[in-house]
Design brief:
Number of strands of chain B: 11
Strand content of chain A: over 45%
Shape of chain A: globular
Oligomer: heterodimer
Structural class of chain B: mainly beta
Number of helices of chain B: 0
Helix content of chain A: under 10%
Strand content of chain B: over 45%
Largest sheet of chain A: 7 strands, mixed
Structural class of chain A: mainly beta
Order of helices and strands of chain A: EEEEEEEEEEE
Helix content of chain B: under 10%
Number of strands of chain A: 11
Radius of gyration of chain A: 13 Å
């Protein structure tokens, strides 16, 4: 059973370009979470999605950031018009159950975005 | 609202010495608590989790943590450090009823000296 797959592992974008980060959850998992880790900081929750639904986007910046989890295919975190401050590691996690506080979330290897 | 505080951003121990990484939490509901380890340029791996079944939780790689409600603490320990334990360690609390939505501490970088 493959783990959570994120690609690309490393992404370099120039200021003003778009960044697309992909996450394929573990088989059988229908809940996806995106986190951002800025240098020297812990992970900060961004958004929680189920198939075709955004459940909680309280951690998403109001502008330029969007996320989706279509019925088919991976979850996508999209950052438009990137700025240097977007440089960070973006982690995706998946879990099989909703409403269960002790459910373990499995993390991917992350995508390290560098904006130059 | 839930929150987590990790005391000490850097901890250094000698190989074979006790490892103690501190975590205090704040939660308006009975908490579910987690410790994750992150090796350089890698994702997070779950070490152990507290789900109210037992206050002393044993995890992988010889780590354990004790939930102390009176102290609102969930410190991570290992009796004898190995060089391979050098990594970043994160304490986290589950936020509300969304299992995968976690509130993380700032992290503690563990260094192990030979």
């Amino acid at each position: 059973n493959a783990g959570v797959m994120q690609n690309p592992r490393h992404l370099v974008r120039r200021r003003g370009q778009e960044a697309r980060l992909r996450c394929s959850p573990m088989k059988g998992h229908s809940h996806v979470y995106w986190y951002r880790q800025l240098p020297e900081e812990g992970l900060k929750f961004m958004v929680y999605l189920q198939k075709e639904n955004i459940i909680d986007e309280s951690g998403m910046p109001k502008e330029r950031f969007s996320a989706e989890f279509p019925k088919e295919g991976p979850s996508i975190l999209r950052i438009q018009q990137v700025v240097r401050g977007d440089s960070a590691a973006y982690f995706c996690a998946s879990s099989p159950l909703q409403g269960s506080m002790n459910t373990e979330a499995f993390f991917g290897q992350g995508t390290r975005l560098t904006v130059v | 609202a839930q929150s987590v505080t990790q005391l000490g951003s850097h901890v250094s121990v000698s190989e074979g010495a006790l490892v103690l990484l501190r975590c205090n939490y704040s939660s308006s509901v009975p908490p579910y608590l987690f410790w994750y380890v992150q090796y350089p340029n890698q994702g997070l791996q779950l070490l152990l989790k507290y789900t109210s079944a037992a206050t002393l939780v044993k995890g992988i790689n010889g780590f354990e943590a004790e939930f102390k409600k009176s102290e609102t603490s969930f410190h991570l320990t290992k009796p004898s450090a190995h060089m391979s334990d050098a990594a970043e360690y994160f304490c986290a609390v589950s936020d509300g009823n969304q299992g995968g939505k976690l509130i993380f501490g700032q992290g503690t970088e563990l260094s192990v000296k030979p």
